[in-house]
Design brief:
The chain is α+β, with helices and mostly antiparallel strands and 264 residues long. It is 17% helix and 33% strand. It is built from five helices and 13 strands. The strands form two sheets. A seven-stranded antiparallel β-sheet has the order 3-9-5-7-12-11-6, with no helix packed on it. Strand 1 and strand 2 form a beta hairpin. It is globular. The two termini are 23 Å apart.
Length: 264
C-alpha cells in the first residue's frame, strides 16, 4: 500500500490549500489556469471529507434549556491551523444558530458541511461607497443621515442548502464574498478554509451587515415583493446593506480540535 494512503485526509487538504493559495494575487484570480487547476484539486479533496475524518461526532439537538443555554455560545470554533497563506478550522453551530451576514475582504473561501444541514445566502457589494444623493430616499426602517456612509448597494447571488453530501461552497474577493449561514432542522458543523486569513492590519477585518428594503418593496402585510413573487425573482434584484456592529446575540466560543494534527 502506498505510504501516502496513511496520510490523514486533513493533512492532504492543508498541503493542497497551501499549494493552491501560495503566491495567489487578486488580479490573477480567474485568469490563472494553474490556479484553477490547483483549486480544482483542493475542491476534490474537500468534497470527500467527513466529520469522522476529523474525529468529530455529530452533536444532538439542544438538550439544555434556560440560563445554561443562554450562556453557551451559539457557535464554537475548532482551530486546525493557520499560516500567512490560509487558515483552516471547523465551525459548530447549535440548532437554530446563525452566523450573521458578513464579508471576507480580498479573500477566497471554502465551506464544506461535515454534518447537519445549513442554508447559505450569498451576496456581493456592487460599489464601495455612496454619496448622500445616491442613497434611496425611503428605506425601511428609515436611516439617520450619519448612517449613509455605512450603506452599500448589493446583489443577492444565491440561496442554497448544503449537507454533508454536498460539495463545498466557494467564495472569492469578487463573487459570493458576503454570506449568512443558518442551521436547518438541527445542529450543524462545517470545515472552513480562508485564504489569506483575516488580518485587520492588512485590511482584512470582518464586517457585519443588515439587509434593508425600500418602502416600495414592502407589501401591505409586511412581506417583500421577493417573498410574494418567489425567491428566483429576489435573486435578480439589488438590495441595500447597512454595515452594523457585531450583533449582540452572536458570539463564537472555542473548543479543542480532536482530529489529526496538521504540520508543514
Amino acid at each position: 500500500m502506498p505510504r501516502d494512503s496513511r496520510t490523514p485526509l486533513i493533512q492532504k487538504i492543508a498541503k493542497q490549500a497551501h499549494i493552491t493559495f501560495k503566491g495567489w494575487k487578486p488580479s490573477a484570480n480567474g485568469d490563472n489556469k494553474l490556479f484553477a487547476e490547483q483549486q480544482g484539486e483542493l475542491v476534490s479533496l474537500v468534497t470527500t471529507v467527513r466529520a469522522a475524518d476529523l474525529k468529530i461526532a455529530p452533536r444532538k439537538s439542544n438538550s439544555s434549556t434556560g440560563a445554561a443555554e443562554l450562556q453557551s455560545p451559539p457557535v464554537t470554533y475548532m482551530h486546525i491551523c493557520e499560516t500567512e497563506v490560509f487558515s483552516m478550522g471547523v465551525f459548530l453551530l447549535r440548532s437554530g444558530a446563525s452566523i450573521p451576514l458578513h464579508d471576507h475582504p480580498g479573500m477566497n473561501g471554502m465551506l464544506k458541511v461535515l454534518y447537519g444541514k445549513v442554508s447559505v445566502r450569498c451576496l456581493d457589494k456592487l460599489e464601495n461607497s455612496l454619496s448622500v444623493g445616491s442613497a434611496p430616499s425611503q428605506l425601511e426602517p428609515p436611516l439617520a443621515l450619519y448612517q449613509t456612509s455605512s450603506l452599500r448597494r448589493s446583489v443577492l447571488r444565491s440561496v442554497v442548502e448544503l449537507s454533508e453530501t454536498s460539495g463545498p461552497c466557494l467564495l472569492t474577493p469578487l463573487r459570493d464574498n458576503l454570506h449568512q449561514i443558518d442551521t436547518v432542522e438541527g445542529p450543524a458543523a462545517f470545515l472552513d478554509i480562508l485564504a489569506p486569513p483575516y488580518n485587520p492590519d492588512d485590511g482584512r477585518d470582518c464586517h457585519y451587515y443588515k439587509v434593508l428594503q425600500t418602502v416600495s418593496q414592502v407589501g401591505p402585510e409586511g412581506k417583500s415583493n421577493e417573498e410574494q413573487q418567489g425567491e428566483e425573482k429576489e435573486k435578480q434584484e439589488e438590495t441595500w446593506l447597512l454595515e452594523i456592529p457585531q450583533p449582540e446575540d452572536f458570539w463564537c466560543g472555542g473548543e479543542p480540535y480532536p482530529g489529526p494534527a496538521v504540520s508543514f
